[in-house]
Design goal:
alpha/beta, six-stranded mixed β-sheet, 2 domains, 10 strands, Rossmann fold, 11 helices, globular, disordered C terminus
């Protein structure tokens, strides 16, 4: 049995079933998205800027209702329960915790206060303290900076902070939006190493939105490639990393190993054999 078939037979924690998403009943952003995120796995949602990746994440956690967005067809299921119309607070209580792009820290508060904000829905003080110590274990720099005003942290430190704050909510499913954006390669490597550890040690399931295809595929089990609101390719990370279209279009490598702009690729020559 192939990796791809085996993956698709696993029980999905999160499932998109032919989801269409519109803004103000006019602008169609997601066009029949179907994807699975099995429990305990890391799934990467890849694609160029504007493909609809962030909209897909926000549709899961209910953050687009105030912007006039709504699912107009299909369903988003978390453990077989529809969540597309659910209140964001209830979604977090179920264990779905987003880490959106922009590193949105509370700038006037210190590091530890920011971390404790992530636990505001939890009641057990002892468990909250245990979670705080675990966060400091994964990100020792945050412990050293716990009294530092968050607005004065570097970009990498702020990304660690928002990741730690999400951990304080005791997530079962983390939704990560472009965690590598604007960061130095060494910091990106460090953060992705921690994400990999969280998946293996804490059994946290992840849906990872990322433009950096190379780093995303290095930790993901499976990937879906989006283009203008549609899934155009999907497969195991190994298969996607070896696919020639992905190499040309997103990794910037042509068949001879040289650099190539994605704008030079007119169509996916091998797409048919990858479509689900």
């Amino acid at each position: 049995m192939s990796e791809r078939v085996f993956f698709l037979q696993e029980i999905a924690m999160l499932k998109f079933e032919n989801v269409e998403f519109m803004f103000n009943r006019v602008i169609l952003v997601l066009k029949g998205i179907t994807l699975d995120v099995p429990a305990g796995r890391i799934v990467a949602l890849l694609g160029a800027n504007g493909a609809g990746k962030t909209t897909a994440l926000k549709a899961v956690c209910g953050l687009l209702h105030v912007e006039g967005g709504e699912v107009t067809a299909g369903h988003i299921l978390f453990e077989n329960e529809p969540v597309e119309t659910m209140d964001p607070t209830m979604i977090v209580k179920k264990g779905i915790v987003p880490i959106m792009d922009g590193r949105r820290v509370m700038e006037h508060m210190n590091v530890e206060q920011n971390l404790l904000l992530g636990s505001h829905l939890r009641k057990d003080i002892k468990q909250v303290k245990e979670s705080l110590n675990r966060v400091y274990g994964y990100f020792p720099i945050l412990k050293k900076l716990k009294n530092r005003t968050a607005g004065y942290l570097s970009g990498g430190e702020q990304q660690m902070l928002v990741t730690g704050r999400a951990l304080m909510a005791k997530p079962r499913l983390m939704l990560l939006d472009e965690p590598s954006m604007g960061l130095a390669p060494l910091i990106v490597k460090e953060i992705f190493n921690v994400l990999n550890m969280l998946n293996h040690e804490e059994n946290i399931t992840m849906l990872l939105v990322e433009q950096n295809v190379r780093i995303a595929l290095s930790i993901a089990d499976y990937g879906y490639l989006m283009e203008t609101g549609r899934i155009v390719l999907h497969g195991s990370s190994k298969d996607l990393a070896q696919n020639e279209d992905v190499k040309e279009f997103y990794l910037g490598l042509n068949l001879s190993g040289g650099r190539k702009s994605y704008r030079d690729v007119k169509h996916y020559k091998r797409r048919k054999r990858w479509l689900g």
